[in-house]
Design a protein that fits this description.
- By secondary structure, the chain is mainly α.
- The protein has three domains: 126 residues, Serine Threonine Protein Phosphatase 5, Tetratricopeptide repeat (Alpha Horseshoe); 106 residues; 94 residues, no CATH class.
- It is built from 15 helices and two strands.
- A two-stranded antiparallel sheet has the order 1-2.
- Helix 10 packs parallel to helix 12.
Amino acid sequence: MKQILIIGFALFFAKGIAQNRNIEYSKLIQEGWKLCLNKDFENSAKLYEKAFELNKNVPLADRYNASCIYALSGNNDAAFRHLFITANNLKWDDLDHLKNDTDLVSLHTDNRWRELVSIVAKNKQDIEKDFDKGLVTVLDKIYFDDQSTRNQIRSMEEKHGRGSKEMDAFWQTILKKDSINLIKVSKILDERGWPDKKLIGKRGTSTLFLVIQHADQETQEKYLPMIKKAVVTNNLPKRQYAMFYDRLILRRGEYQIYGTQLAMNNESKTPYVLPLEDPKNVDKRRAEMGLNTMQENLNRWNLTWDVDAYIKALPAIEAKEKELNQKNKS
């Protein structure tokens, strides 16, 4: 009995240490990212390195962001060190992203750049060897049309202002592309069902998801059973399903489940979390879907997740959303 208690305590103690390390890791990454946004790249990189010392399995996204931060700071050696880890150890295969990321432009003239590109290209080739090339080509075009305009939203708003005539015209361009893309994707899904990830890869899967995510409620309801099946068969990540389902049930007038959907406060110009079911346990549900914590998600907007404050504000948020929905319907 004593031995069992000792073992149990040791496991509990070890688990507690791991949890503390995860919390500290997240804090360091959060602070490092804030410094990056403020263009303090040197100190940002230092915090990322401290975080990496706490975690043997650094997520690819964090490793890649560190390489970009180092490149922006002028430290090519450190940038390539992290990039080669993502390419060799983590088998990163997004060649287009690598080539077109403006954060890495300073590395292009370095002799190591060609070697890095070759490794990532090989990773891409290995993953895509069994792809349906024709279908992938169609989906790549749809992905570009979907993202190329949306990536300009922030810069357009900064230039012309939210609600300006220029932004209204820009959104009409986006909606027109969405309509064309939806016709193409609906044809694929209606004729073939949800394609296997082995045939279209992560980007192809994301493309289908994005188009349906941007579609109207009727379309989302139509493809909900197909999307649920895609999650079960591992052909759509749970985290993307969580975003899709949150948006859909908010449209139904219900509370979202995973806290993935935010809106912008026109007065304060800051985002806020749309009506959320059981806020105190949202991080448990997010973890089940492969999402980071609410705080980690809100870091990008430099917001703090205060559960008690959110619960108090929830009636006002719900009333505001109902008012907006009524205006949109009229």
